[in-house]
Structure formats: structure tokens, C-alpha cells
Amino acid sequence: MMNPKEWDVLVVGAGPAGLAAALAAHNKGASTAIIEREDRPGGILKQCIHDGFGLVRFGEKLTGPEYAFRDIRRIEEKKIPVFTETYLEKSEILGGGFGLHLVNNRAGVFTLRSKALVFATGCRERTARQVFIHGTRPSGIWTAGLAQYFINIQGYMPCRRCVILGSGDIGLIMARRLTLEGAEVEGVYEVLPEPSGLTRNVVQCLEDYAIPLHLSSTVTRVHGEDRVEGVTVSAVDAQRRPVPGTERYVECDCLILSVGLIPENEGPEALGTPLDRLTGGPIIDQRYMSTALAGLFSCGNALHVSDLVDYVSETGHSAGEAAAVYALGKSTKPSRKLVPLRPGNNVRYTVPQYVDVSLPGTVTLFFRSSRTLEHARATLSSGETTVLKKTFPVLRPPEMERLEFQVPENGLEDALVLHITGREEKG
Amino acid sequence: MKSVPDRVVKTLEKKGLTGIAVTLEEESLCLKGMVKNHDDWLKAGYTAAAFPCREVINDLAIQGLEPEKDRLPALSDSLLEGRHFDAVVIGGGVIGCAAARELTRWDISVALLEKDGDVSCHASGRNDGMVHPGFAAHPGTKKATYNVRGNKLYTRVSEDLGVPLVRCGSMLLLKNPLYILLIPYFFLRARQNGVEGCRFIERRKVFQLEKQVTRKQWGAFSFPTAGVMSPYRTAIAYAENAVQNGAEVFLDTRVRGFRLEPSKPGKTRLTAVETNRGTFTASVVINAAGIWADRIAQYAGDRFFSLHYRKGVDCILDKKTGALQQRATGMPELFQLRAKTKGGGIVPTTEGNLLIGPTAEEIPYREEYSTSQTDIDALMSRLNLNRALKKEDIITYFAGVRACTWKEDFIIEPSRKVDNLIHAAGIQSPGFASAPAIAEDVAAFAVEALKLQRTVMENRCFNPRREAPVNPRNLSPQERTKLIQSDPAYGRVICRCEGVSEGEVRDALRSSVPAMTLDGIKRRTRAGMGRCHGGFCTPRILEIMSAELKEPMERLTKRGAGSLFFTGLTKETEPKKAVKGGEA
Questions:
Q1: Is residue B536 part of a domain?
Q2: Could you say which of A290, B31, B132, B410 has the lowest number of CB atoms within 10 Å?
Q3: Best of B72, B359, B474, B492 to mutate (most A CBs within 10 Å, chain A)
Q4: What b/e string do you get for B306-332 counting C-beta neighbours within 10 Å, with b at 16 or more?
Q5: What share of chain A has pLDDT > 90, as a percent?
Q6: How far is B549 from chain A (nearest CA, A)?
């Protein structure tokens, strides 16, 4: 394997974001390699055997492995090295770039250096304890992604009759998957008054299989010593507190959790990159470059949890290109002029969090609304200047939205704020 | 003058507890009858304990309380039938494991019996690992003396067993400026207990030492000898060293009773131990059965005490918080002198996580480890002892149950009734800190009892140093690379939160006290203890377990019989699919 003294771009993670980033960086002429801790590239897509991937990017419905394979094939064609089963133990700032301390079963302990570093490390799942589910700790409490791995990769059934807590997309998809495998899904319980997953998943995974969805409800207690024997479910009030008197015991041998994803950013954090508390991802500008640490890029679900893999690939692609440009020093590198981009009324978060107004060109802005609104009007303004206006028939928190705008030629002075107005959805 | 039992009855009646029969049995007060609830049960026990007596046997029934389910091992065989051991230790907690290891210093056969599928499953695997300085216990108690001695011994134990000890020190933060008046009393108690190096640190200085400490402190009393250690790794290491020195460990082995024969007048000797794996003879038996120690004493006809059960919940914070505090801190309510806990606080760990805890709640069951919102709320208030900690930093939380006598002190003594039985009972906090000292003494008692029966020689081959498993992360990059080249399994990292390799998991499955369950692997390697809490590594570990234990995946368990992972295969899986570790 070609192994330069210093790579232009190293990408951590060979999921959809990392693959796209590496391809883009390579295509821009940067020497690029990927670090992957598993034995094969593809990330979580490997276990997502359902379809629905790629509608935006390829205009067709693919399964997870099919979607990943399109990028993997190109990575192979371009001979971009992928260091598989390679564990990133520590990264450090080394000279003007980065040093990655790695371990694998072939070379042992070794260091790779790069000018630019792209973190495409995805997410982990929030666990039962992190949402404070009480009671005992028997076998049979799994996160949805882990249950998906058991079934789709290993071929083992984690339960016969289960309760699913959380209506995130993986939870919904697992409700259908478990049903198809002959298990009974007693119900899906969601603490919020509306589903957390995409509408299409609620319809295709629950409604089509007559699986009940209990909104404003949660699991308050797990029962069973060795294996889950049942759970107590309760209705919750507007503050998400269980309502006394609404408890119901549900017999089941498994509790599956789809209660949120946490972007994995221990790497950037250890390098001193602050995280956005709203997204859990690094604070970046429109090139996906950390505002605190030049040369460090973030993309995909590590940057912010996306609803569609297509957007994961898109941020990966953009981050990879920008990393190559940075590493090759082709940008004239004027000192950055960063203007904050902040979520305003009814906006949960915005990515990027800053815009470098010294850079010309189009800025892609991702956001999520903080509640469901009809006839929604999004307004992006900077002081008195309105930069962009767009209307949406409906905005829902589970669905990520994408906007594009141009940085005005004469730049911007004041912080950019995205506000949304609209009508509350009628029951 | 009325008899003690009569005075107890009278006092109980004054407290509204009527219909309780009190008798004196072997100098212990025995309570019989029925009480309305668990609170009354506790009140009665503590009331009796305040009277002069050896101990209290609280046999009061609680109205409407469902009895605790007896969790018997599923296993039943004749592995031990007809065998003989010179010394038998009942209970694979840190006390039992340490006692077994101390016994192997002698040229005798030693067996350690544990009813569950691994050592350190209960209290020893469910505490905060504080090597307390020995200040909290009342002067003159067994707790105080064993704690101070145990604390000192740990320096050597840590070295010998290869389990890290961090003498981080602890600070008792003063909640109220008036508490400064108590400092002379603190120094006096420290002197009485033999706790060395204590200092008063004024408020300003406390901020310099611990940058993030709560602003609501008024100085601190500091204990430089306080330390932390992993309690379950210590127990496992003791057990492994015992096995390396010739002891045998029998898991899933539960004592059902003893055979006794009369010896001197009014006394008996124990001849055989009955278990689910056969009956065997024993020359001396150590009761280190933790929360079940009174049951073991009962089997031997020497139940002069009974236990009550105090649950404690701890929570573990992300490793990222490790840098936010160096010392253990606590802020006890000093004027609740009868409080049965030191109030808990923030404790560093040797692995770099911070830990918050423990709570203290009396419960009516021995092995009831559920947690509730109340526990978490109580722990959250302690989070404020450090200004930088947040609720989101919590990775997980767990409960343990302390085995408490009514006198609230340890029972460490040879039985007065059975010639060849030694009790190490009522071991609650500071039990872990005291363990090395307790083990030395009970082993010495056992050897004394043995010497009355036969000559006991030293074990010339005894090696105090445990052959500790390889930890690649402690090696230099060159050494680690060499290790990986000789065995690539050490280069395949499967737990990415804790950086644990396949080789380490495999070693845990092959060690002298091997892990048989996922929790066993977790305790030995830390795989699955990180922030994702097993979300990514569990499938890989199960594959390695399956290959090493030669068990199909469907039969692997989280922590022993019944705690299976899988209910079967998926529709498309070949019925006899063989899964090998490391091959995708």
C-alpha cells in the first residue's frame, strides 16, 4: 500500500459520509486514505437491509448495502486505501497538520500524518440508562441498532414479543423487521406527542402491520431478573413526566430502544474542538471546517443527525472537497471572517453554525424545525438584510430541511438568524 | 431490675410496636412476631440493637410481604461428591476471594464456593471501590480497625495482584462555616482510629486543589490515605491468585446445608458441606456469604445474628469528566449522627471515570437491584459537589445491597458453637477497604482451627504475585507492536469506547477464573463499560465467547442461567450455522 509520509487528507470512518468525503478529496487531487475500525467499509448501512436509500441522490430506492456499494466500488476503482480493522487511539495536532495514532492487527501501533482531517464517525445510540429507565437490568434490553445487527448480520432473534420505546426511524424499521421475522411487537411507545421518525416509516412500518403507536407514553420500569419479563408503560404529561394512575403492565421478553442518536465526536473534542449543544456535532463553517481548529472537518451524522443518507453523503462530499482544497493550499486562505448563523423562532438548530463571509459562493444550510408547522415561512436575515425567504407546505421536526443561499458580494456584518413562522398543525 | 428482653419489649411497646416476643439466645436478642411493615421491622431491630447484647436476630415477619424468590443454580451434578478440602470458603465476593488466597499461603487444599456464575457478582461488583481512610467508623469498632489496616495493606495487594490503586485522597467538605468548630473533634477521631496524615484545608485552598468544587463549601478535612481501586477486579485478581497457588473455585455451587457432629459439651463440629454439586468433607469452613451469611450460620446451627439489607445506588459518568476532579469529595450531614451512611459523594475511579454515590435505602430483599427515579434524584443532588458535572455525563447506574447486622459492625470471629467454622459476616461499607485485613484474620483463624486437627505447613510454592492478564494499552508502542505481531488478536480492537482488543476478551475467557458470561467479560476487560455501553461490541464479544466456550450463540448468557441473549434463529439462518469469532 502506498503510504506517503504525510497524507493530504485522512478520513476517519468508512460509512457513507467518510466514503463520499474520501472520493471527493481524491477527485480534487489530494492524496487520501480512510481509517475504518470494522473489517469492511459501509458503516451502519451494512445492516440496513430495508430499502428507501438514495431517492434524493440516485433517484432510485436502494437497500443500505446497495447504496454503500456504489461508493465502495468507486473507492476500489480509484484505489483509495482503506485501513480496515484499524482503531484510532488518539489524534494530535502535529506541525501544521494532524497525527493519528492507530492500532491494527497487521502493523501494530503506527502513526499516520495528514494536512487535513475529516471526522466521519457517525453516531452511537442512546441507551436505556441514558433515558433513565428504571427497574431491573435483565438480559433483553437492546438498542434498536444492536437488535438490527443481531437479526440482519448475525441471524439471531433477540425476542419473541417486544415493546419498542421511541419512534425514531430505526425503532420503526425494527418494528417491521421483527414482525416479518415472526416476533410480536406489542407496541411502539413515544414520549413526545408526535412520532420522531419519518412519516413514511410510520406508515410503512407500523400502520401497514397494524402495530400500535402510543404517543405521549413511555416505559417507566423494567421487570424480570434474568431476562425481561415485562415492562410498565405510562402516559406522560406535557413535561414528559409519567402520569400517576396510567401505569399498565405489558408482558414481553424484550425492550428495544430507539431513543435518539448521539454524534460521536470524542476525536474532535479531544483536539479541542467545541461542540454545538444543539446538534452534538462540531461547530463548523460552510466548508464543514471547525471554526476553532483549521484543517479539521466534520460531516455526516457525526456533524448532525440526518434523516436521509443522501444528505449524509452530501455533507461528506462537501467536507472532502473542502479538506482537499485546504490541504493542497489552493484556497488563497484569507483570514476567515466568521459570522454566526443562529436558529431563531421555531428552529431547533442550524448547520453550519458560522458562515465565512470572506468566501464567495453558495452556502448550503440544513435545519430542523422545533415543532410541526403548516404553511411555514423561513426567513434568513442578517440585521436589516433579508438573505433568503422560502415557504414550506409543512415542516416537521423529524424531517431535516435544506436551503441554499449566496453570501452577498459585499459580505455581511451581523449574525445570520433563521426564523420560521407558520400555523400549528390542526389535529 | 428487669431483664434485658423485658426492657426491650417495654421500649418497643412505647414505640407502638406491640405483640413482639423478645428472648435471649446465645447472648443475642431474638425478636419474634409480626409487624405491619418494613419500617416497623427496621425500628424493632434497631431498638433491640441499642440494648446490651451480642447481636440481634430479627425474625419478625412483615405483614403481606412476599418472600424473596430463592434463586437456585440450575446446575445439579456430582462434581464435588466425596471430595475433601482442608478449607472451604463460602462466597466469592472480595472477602471470600481474598480469604481463599490468604489460605493458599499454607500447604492445604482450598475450595472457594460461589452460588452464581462468576465471582464478585453482588456487593463486591456493585460498590464505588473506595479504599476509605478509616475515619467514618466509630473508634473501637471492628469497622474502624479493619478499615485502617486494610487501607495500609492495599499498597502491597495492588502491587502483588496487578490491580491499580490510586491514592487520590478524599475531602470531607464542610457544609456550614460552624462545622469548623468540629475540626479538633475530627483530629481526635482520626487519632483514635489511627488515620494518618489528616489535615484541615481552608476554603480558599480547597478551590485551588479542586478547581470545580462547589462554592457552597467552607473548607475541608482531608484524608491523603484514601484511595480507589476496582472492587470487582480486586476480587477476581484475588481469586485468580488463589487458583494460581492451588485453590479450586467452584461457580454455580450453592451450599444447602452442613453435616454436624457433637464435639465438646454444647459444641459441634462441621464434617461435611452439602451443595447442589454434591456433598464433600471439610476440615474448616469460612462463612463469607455476604448478604446470605446469616443463612449459612443458620445451616451450621450458629445463627446468633440476622442481617438487614441496605441498597446503594451509584452512577458512572463519562470518562470525559475524569479530568474535572482528582480527589473523592463528600459533604455529609454531620449532625445526623445516627445516619447509617457516610452520605456519599463524588469518587474518581482508576479507569478515569467519575462515580457518584452511593445512596442508602433499607429494602426488604437481599438481591433486589432495581433502581428508581428517587435514587437518581438523590444522586443528582450530589452532582452539584462539582460545578462542571452535568446530568448528560451519566453513562449508567447500578444498585448493590449492603449486608448489615443490627449492631452495624462486622462479625469477624471463629464460631463460638462450631469448632471449625469462621464467620466473616455483616461486611458492609467499609468492607472493600477492609478486605485484605479481614482476609488475613479469617485465614489465620482457620489455620488455627486446622492446627488443632493436624500439622499445617507453609506453602513453599506460594507466589503472591498474580499473573495479570496482558493490557496492551499499558505497553510502549514498540512492545505493543511486538505483542500484536506475535498474536494479532491484540491488534483487533473490538470495544472502541474502552479500546479493548479481541485478545483481551479471549484471555478473560481462558483465565484461571474464566469469565463464562458477558458480564464476566465486562468486569475483567471493561469491554462494554464505556459510553456506548455495549452497543457496538456486544455482537463481536458474543462471537468470541461462542468460539472460545464452544457454545452456540443461543446458549450464551449475560450473567448466567436464564439471562439468554437470543430466543432462536431468524427465518433465513441455517439451523446449524457455526459462528466463529473474528470471521465475518
A1: yes
A2: A290
A3: B492
A4: bbbbbbbbbbbbbbebeebbebbbbbb
A5: 89
A6: 18
Query: Could you say which of B484, B543, B573 has the minimum Cβ distance to residue A108?
Result: B484
- Asked whether residue B209 is assigned to any structural domain, the reply reads no
Are the Cβ atoms of B394 and A137 closer than 8 angstroms? Answer: no
Question: For residue B333, what pLDDT band results from cuts at 50, 70 and 90?
Answer: confident
Give yes or no: residues B442 and B551 share one domain. Answer: no
B563–A124 C-beta distance less than 8 A: no
CATH code of residue B40: 3.30.1340
CB contact under 8 A, A87 and B499: yes
pLDDT tens-place string over residues A300-353? 999 999 999 999 999 999 999 999 999 998 555 557 899 999 999 999 999 999
Give the range of the structural domain holding residue B428, as residue numbers without chain letter: 84-123+232-307+408-451
Strands B328-330 and B170-173, sheet pairing = parallel
Instruction: For chain A, give percent helix, strand, coil, nearest 5.
Output: 25, 40, 40
| pLDDT tens column, B103-114 | 999 999 999 999
Q: How far apart are CA B397 and CA A56, in angstroms?
A: 42
If asked whether residues B50 and B93 sit together in one domain, one would say no
At which of B384, B416, B451 does a domain end? B451
Flag whether pLDDT at B73 surpasses 90.
no
pLDDT tens sequence across B505-526: 999 999 999 999 999 999 999 9
**Largest distance between two CA atoms of chain B:** 82
On whether any CB of chain A is under 8 Å from the CB of B359, the answer is no
Of chain A, the end-to-end C-alpha distance in Å amounts to 60
DSSP 3-state of B245: coil
Query: What average pLDDT score do residues B481-505 get?
Result: 96
Provide, as residue numbers in chain B, all residues whose Cβ is less than 8 Å from the Cβ of A145: 535
User: Could you give the ipTM of this predicted complex?
Assistant: 0.95
* CATH number (domain holding residue B95): 3.50.50.60
The pLDDT value recorded for residue B43 is 97
**What CATH number did the domain enclosing B500 receive?**
1.10.10.1100
CA-wise closest residue to B471 among B501, B445, B450: B501
In this predicted structure, the answer to whether residue B580 has a pLDDT above a threshold of 60 is no
Q: Which residue of B has its CA nearest to A110?
A: B477
Do B37 and B98 share a structural domain?
no
Please tell me which residue of chain A has the smallest CA distance to B558. A139
Closest partner residue to B371 (CB to CB) among A134, A139, A157 is A134
Angle at A43 between CA A98 and CA A400, to 5 degrees: 90
Whether B208 contacts chain A with CB within 8 A: no
Residue B394 domain flag: no
Q: Which of A199-203, A358-362, B172-176 has the lowest mean pLDDT?
A: A358-362
Q: What is the pLDDT of residue B1?
A: 67
Out of A110, A130, A139, closest to residue B564 by CB: A139
- Write the secondary structure of A160-175 as one string of H (helix), E (strand) and C (coil): CEEEEECCCHHHHHHH
Interface check for B566 against chain A (CB to CB < 8 A): the answer is yes
Q: Which residues of B touch A127 (CB under 8 A)?
A: 395-396, 532-533, 535
B239 plus B292 within the same structural domain: yes
Chain centroid offset of residue B535 CA: 27
Is there a single domain that holds both residue B419 and residue B295? yes
pLDDT band at A267 (very low <50, low <70, confident <90, very high): very high
Q: Is residue B227 part of a domain?
A: no
- Strand A82-83, strand A32-35: pairing: parallel
Q: Which residues of A touch B483 (CB under 8 A)?
A: 108
Number of domains within chain B: 3
- CA angle at residue A200 from A197 to A206, to 5 degrees? 75
Do B289 and B250 lie in one domain? The reply is yes
Whole-structure pTM value = 0.94
Q: Which B-chain residues 370-389 have CB contacts (< 8 A) with chain A?
A: 370-373, 376
Would residue B423 show up in a list of annotated catalytic residues for this protein? no
